[in-house]
Amino acid sequence: MAHFAELDENDVVLRVLVVPDNQEHRGHEFLSNDLGLGGTWVQTSYNGTIRKNFAGAGHTFDRKRNAFIGIKPAASWVLNEETCLWEAPVPYPTDGLMYQWNEETTEWKAIVND
């Protein structure tokens, strides 16, 4: 099965639909014309072999990079140009604990279970 993302006029992903394998080579036409959905459709893949990242609703398709880019998690995060993934300015701790990002302090804060 192949996956195709529908884009709005600003290249923001509206939804992702599955296309049968025998229609993968013409997925855009299959969705737009055969199913009568119209719109602009771009193929995506779970394993990132097509357009770097799997598309999701709200993600953006960057035509220059030919890549899907997720929603920026926080203002301080920067885009990794190679992977097209957002990265925190501070690496995630590797001590085995769970953390959440604190944008005010721009650091990872341990999640404490009570």
Topology record:
Layout: E1 2-7, E2 13-19, H1 27-34, E3 40-44, E4 60-62, E5 67-69, E6 78-79, E7 86-87, E8 99-102, E9 107-110
Antiparallel strand pairs: 1-2, 1-3, 4-5, 6-7, 8-9
Q: What does it look like?
A:
With 114 residues, the protein is mainly beta. It folds into two domains: 1-71, no CATH class; 73-114, no CATH class. 7% of the residues lie in helices and 32% in strands. The chain contains one helix and nine strands. The strands form four sheets. It has a three-stranded antiparallel β-sheet, with helices on one face. A hairpin with a 6-residue loop joins strand 6 (78-79) and strand 7. The termini are far apart. 16% of the residues are buried. The mean pLDDT is 95.
Give the key terms.
single chain, mainly beta, 2 domains
Q: Report the helical percentage.
A: under 10%
Specify the number of helices.
Answer: 1
Low-confidence stretches: none
Question: How many E strands?
Answer: 9
End-to-end gap: 44 Å
What characteristic shape results from the CA principal axes? elongated
Largest sheet: 3 strands, antiparallel
Fraction in beta strands: 25-35%
Number of domains: 2
Rg, rounded, reads 18 Å
In N-to-C order, the SSE pattern is EEHEEEEEEE
Read across the widest sheet, the strand sequence of neighbours is 2-1-3
- Secondary-structure-based class equals mainly beta
Q: Can you give the mean pLDDT? A: 95
